[in-house]
Structure formats: C-alpha cells, structure tokens
Design a protein that fits this description.
Order of helices and strands of chain A: HHHHHHHHHHHH
CATH superfamily of the largest domain in chain B: MetI-like
Radius of gyration of chain B: 24 Å
Low-confidence stretches of chain A: 1-28
Mean pLDDT of chain B: 86
Radius of gyration of chain A: 23 Å
Shape of chain B: flat
CATH class of the largest domain in chain B: Mainly Alpha
Helix content of chain B: over 70%
Largest sheet of chain A: none
Number of domains of chain B: 2
Largest sheet of chain B: none
Order of helices and strands of chain B: HHHHHHHHHHHHHH
Strand content of chain A: under 5%
Number of helices of chain B: 14
Distance between the termini of chain A: 17 Å
Distance between the termini of chain B: 16 Å
Strand content of chain B: under 5%
Shape of chain A: globular
Oligomer: heterodimer
Mean pLDDT of chain A: 83
Structural class of chain A: mainly alpha
C-alpha cells in the first residue's frame, strides 16, 4: 500500500537554531549552569514532552507497548509451549484455560500469538533496516553528488516504483524462493524507493546550506560532510517515514505468509496462523479472530504513532 | 493536449523497456538452472531437462536470451509455462480480466464510500460525525485486507448464510471481495476528500459564491466539489497500483480465479515464464492507468495547462 508521504525539505528539529546560538555566558538559573545540558538533550526532552501530549501518540504507544511487551515477555507469560501438540484439547473455544482457544492440533493460541509477536516485530525491524540502510545510502549519494550516478540510480528507483504494491515483493520472493527470511528481504527491498527519494529530496536542499559550504571550504572530505553535516539533518523525516512504513512492512509480510509465500506453518507468524485458521472458519472462528486482531493492533498502533511523530517532528507535513 | 499525451506516451517507452529488463533479470539472477530448480533439485530425466532448456533457449548466452525475450514480448509472446508446457498467454487467459474486474469494482466501492463519507466529514467538521469518520478511516487503514475478507466470510457466509463462497466467478461472488478491498481503500480516499474539501471551502471564491446568495447545495456541487476532487484524481492512479496488489491477496481469500491465484501457484512451482508474464502484464496495466490518470488530471485542471502556457 502506498502511503502519501511527501518529500520534505525541512529536516531540522524545531527550535534547534535558537538553542544552538545560546552562548555559555548567557544568563540562566544556577542549576542550569552547574549541569549544562547538551542541545541534543534539551531538544530530546522537548520532543518527548510534545509527543506524549499528543493523543494519537498516547494511544499508539499504548498499543505498541502491548505488542512489544508480548514479544519480550512471551517466554515468561505464555501459559503453554507454543508448539506443544495436545490432541485431546483440539479446537477448544476460548476459556480460562486457553484464553484464545486452541487450534486443530490442540496448541494454545494465546501462547502462539505471544510468540508470533516476536516474529512480527523482527520482520518489521529487519525489513525496515534493509530499506533504510540502502535507501539512505542511495539518497545521500544521489542527492549530494548528483550527475551521472544520480541519473542512473534514481531511474532505477523510479523503475522499482513502476511495479504496483505487493507485486515487487512477489517478484523478489519468486526469485529468492518463498520463505520467511526472503519475505523480509523482499519487503525491505520494496521499501527502498521511499527512503531513497525522501533522503535525496532533503539532501538537495541541505547541501546548499552555508554550513555545508563552510565545511567544504575548510577541506572536510565529502563522506565526512555526508555523515556529520547532512545525515543528522535528515534524521527527523527518516524516523517519521520509518514509523509510517513499519505498518506497511508488517502488512505485506503477513500477506505474503497468508498466501503461503512467507512464513510457513507451523510457524506462529500471525499471517501463517490465519492460513491454518481459515480451514476451520466454520467451526472455530476464534482461529481467525485473534491472529487478525493482533496484526490489526500492531498496524493501528504504529499508524497512530507515525502520524503523531510526523506532527511533532515534521510540522510541514501536518494535515497532509 | 495531444502534444502532452504524445510526450507522455513517449516517456512510457523507456519505462516499459525497464520493466521488461527487470522482469527478464528476475529469472536470470536466480541461482542455478531454472528448469532444474523447477524439479526442486530432485533431478528429472537429464534428457528431458536438456530438451526443455533448448526449447526455452536457456542454452544460449544471456545477452542473446535477453534480445530474444525483448523481441518475443514486443510481439506479444510471453513464452511457455515450464510446468504445463502451455503458452503463458493461454495460462493467463481470462484471469487477467477477472483481476481487472475485481480491481475496478473495488475502486467503485472505494470511490462511492470514500466520497460520501469524506464529504460528510468535511461538512460536519469537528462534530461527532467527523470524529467517528476519522476513527472509521483509521480502522480501515489498519485493517489487513485478508483479515477483513475472512471476517466477512465468517459473518455473511458462515453466520448469516447470505452468500455462498464457493461458486462461479459471477456478480454475487464479486460482492464480498470488492467490498473487502473497496472499503479499505475508501478509508484512504475519505481522508483525502475531507482535507481537500476543507481546503477548498476556505477559499475566497467559495465565500464569494455564498455571499452572492447561491444555495449551499449549488456552492458545493458547482464550486467546491469540482475543485476538491482534483487531488483525489491524482492519487487514484497510485491507489490503483495498491488495488491491483490488494486484489492478488484478496483473490486468494475468496478463491476468485484471477491472476493472484495463478501467480501464487506459479511462484510455489517456480514456473518463471508464468510469473514473468503476470508481472509484465500487471505492471504495464499500472503504468498505462497512471498515464491515463495524468491525462485526465490535465483535462480537469485548466490551471496546469495555463501555467504551462505561461512558462
């Protein structure tokens, strides 16, 4: 699914220039003088305060804490072994013994969904890391150097965008072979264009700033300028984009598993759980209710957090 | 207008070449021999494998294969399925139309629901109606299509028994898949319609129209909606890509005999000519639809043409 994430030219945390011009000699309270806080610390505090005041961020964080908590605590709080086959208790409806019921092999769905959270988060994080790493690299290089390398790489990125939605991921899976690892790689690669275009757009404006010219004038090397002067200034939109793409990554990976080209059963990946569940849709509807709800909560949480982050970090995108 | 259309059509040529090249590379970079891969390394009769390879031209150097592929594709020959030995075109058959029908009927649902709810949300801005529309949109945006599909099956086919799921690909069996996909995309459109309409409603010309005593209904239809729909049209092309991809997944939920089912089968059988054929067909459709949307957008918004003329 393509979200309408516009390229942005502003990349600085709001308020940063003011903080930066405050000199050590300026008047302040005694405690501030004793414990000087770095610009970063103050910016970060300001950022968290504004984020936590945002209603959408509150709900989003709450939902994500449930998911992340389930993933981390799964080995401790799961009442059963997620792979334990217990035939006498097969297809039990939700009860106090089995909160989310049991599947056709008598495995406890609650435990399976808790462990599934680990997989889902892993998929999202790994896929996005792949996308962010290559996307940022391509964006930095093309935006900063321009010329032939820009022309070639960006045409390639444009070409990737000519494949609709999940199709690119399907192509990559068909090349690499259908399994969970390849599904992650596929989702990662198909998210590269978003990062590349966003970073390139930001770099195009930042490279014209005076501090970049100044750095070049005193002989700082290009890679160092990219790393020290440009990258930090494109971080805000990158973080926003990553949060907005996270639900897409989770969704595409779950879709791949659902159509049998990602995680394979008996894996407790949520999309794969639904494959099992649909076979028993007439007799055991809880098998489709809970895994789907888990995916839904994860996507909703990250959508809400992403929107809030966009509002706080990148006011220019507000309302779009 | 014609000049613009021709220009856009010319730009399409390199894009299409790129698509063909990438589709070709997709098979070329697979490690190992595609025919042996299809036998999953279990090894078939070496003679049979060699025959298939020669027939597919896999014994030729890569560049030769590439130019042959280009030539064949531009002449409408998508090759033969490794698995069934039938022409890919025949394998695809009317499945292409099935997927397109599903995508377009979903688009219809999305447009209807998205427009109605979006306009309502904008008209009743900051009321309970607006808030509930926002919540609905959020739910739609976070809803995996395959899950919504399963919930619909459970509700309408299992609990209420209104619709049977298994059956011929006719209109009754199109309802649930297109509702599933359409409602999800309605969420995207609804938010866009709302924000776009709100922006237009704050313009001076709307105030002028109101102050000269036009009825609200007339202001809305003649002045506001017309302008508010322009950004909606621009995003339709992009959304159509999502719809095509979404159709692939939804087809697998509802056993709708389109390309989505075929590509999943082809991928698990590693039947590359079929996969390549589908990828080519669908991405070409996507690119062409985007071209048409662009042209439509130019038609709708005289400001763009005017700006172009001025520059």
């Amino acid at each position: 699914m393509t979200k309408n994430v516009k390229e942005t030219s502003t990349a600085r945390l709001e308020g940063a220039p003011l903080e930066a011009t405050a000199t050590p000699g300026s008047p302040g309270t005694l405690t501030q003088q004793l414990k000087p806080k770095s610009v970063f610390q103050r910016n970060f505090q300001d950022f968290t305060r504004r984020l936590l005041r945002n209603r959408s961020a509150q709900v989003g964080l709450f939902l994500l804490v449930i998911v992340i908590g389930s993933a981390i605590l799964a080995p401790l709080i799961a009442p059963y072994d997620p792979t334990l086959v217990n035939s006498p208790e097969r297809l039990q409806s939700p009860s106090l013994q089995h909160f989310f019921g049991t599947d056709a092999l008598g495995r406890d769905m609650f435990s399976r969904i808790l462990f599934g959270a680990q997989l889902t988060l892993q998929i999202g994080v790994i896929a996005l890391s792949i996308a962010a790493f290559f996307g940022i690299l391509i964006g930095l290089v093309t935006g900063y150097y321009g010329g032939l390398i820009d022309g070639v790489l960006m045409r390639f990125i444009d070409l990737l965008l000519a494949f609709p939605g999940i199709l690119l991921a399907l192509m990559i899976v068909s090349t690499l072979g259908p399994n969970l690892t390849n599904a992650m790689i596929a989702v990662g690669i198909s998210s590269i264009p978003g990062f590349a275009r966003l970073v390139r757009g930001s770099v195009l404006t930042i490279r014209e700033q005076e501090y970049v010219t100044a750095a070049r004038a005193v002989g700082v090397s290009n890679p160092r300028i990219l790393w020290k002067a440009i990258l930090p200034n494109v971080m805000a939109p990158i973080i926003v984009l990553a949060t907005l793409l996270f639900p897409d990554a989770v969704l595409v990976a779950a879709s791949l598993s659902f159509i049998g080209l990602g995680a394979q059963p008996p894996s407790p990946e949520w999309g794969a759980l639904l494959v099992d569940g649909r076979l028993y849709i007439q007799s055991a509807s809880w098998l489709i209710t809970f895994p789907g709800l888990a995916i839904f909560i994860t996507i909703m949480g990250s959508n809400l957090l992403g929107n809030a982050l966009r509002d706080v970090l990148d006011p220019h995108l507000r309302g779009r | 207008m014609l000049a613009y259309f021709t220009k856009r059509l010319l730009v399409l040529i390199p894009v299409w070449l790129g698509i063909i090249t990438l589709t070709f590379l997709m098979r070329a970079i697979v490690p190992g021999d595609p025919v042996e891969n299809m036998f999953f390394g279990k090894g078939g009769d070496p003679k049979v494998i060699q025959n298939i390879r020669v027939e597919m031209g896999l014994d030729r150097p890569l560049y030769e294969q590439y130019f042959k592929y280009l030539w064949d594709v531009s002449h409408g020959d998508l090759g033969k399925s490794i698995n069934t030995r039938r022409y890919v075109i025949d394998e695809i058959g009317d499945r292409y139309m099935k997927t397109i029908i599903l995508a377009f009927s979903s688009l219809g649902v999305a447009l209807t629901v998205g427009l109605v709810l979006g306009i309502m949300a904008a008209l009743f801005k900051n009321t309970i109606i607006d808030t509930s529309m926002t919540v609905l949109a959020l739910i739609g945006l976070s809803m995996p299509a395959f899950w919504l599909g399963l919930l619909f099956i459970n509700l309408f086919a299992v609990q209420l028994r209104w619709i049977s799921i298994v059956g011929p690909p006719d209109f009754p069996h199109l309802i649930l898949p297109s509702l599933t996909l359409g409602l999800i995309y309605a969420a995207v459109l609804m938010r866009l319609v709302r924000s776009s309409l709100l922006e237009v409603l704050s313009q001076d010309y709307i105030r002028t129209a109101k102050s000269k005593g036009l009825a609200t209904r007339k202001v809305m239809t003649r002045h506001a909606l017309k302008n508010a729909l322009i950004p909606v049209v621009t995003i339709l092309g992009l959304q159509f890509g999502g719809l095509l991809g979404g159709a692939f997944v939804v087809e697998n939920v509802f056993v709708w005999p389109g390309l989505g089912q075929l590509i999943v089968r082809a991928i698990s059988q590693r039947d590359f000519p079929v996969i390549q054929g589908i990828v080519l067909l669908v991405s070409t459709t996507y690119v062409v639809v985007n071209l048409l949307v662009d042209v439509l957008y130019h038609q709708l918004d005289p400001r763009i043409t005017a700006r172009k003329g001025a520059s």
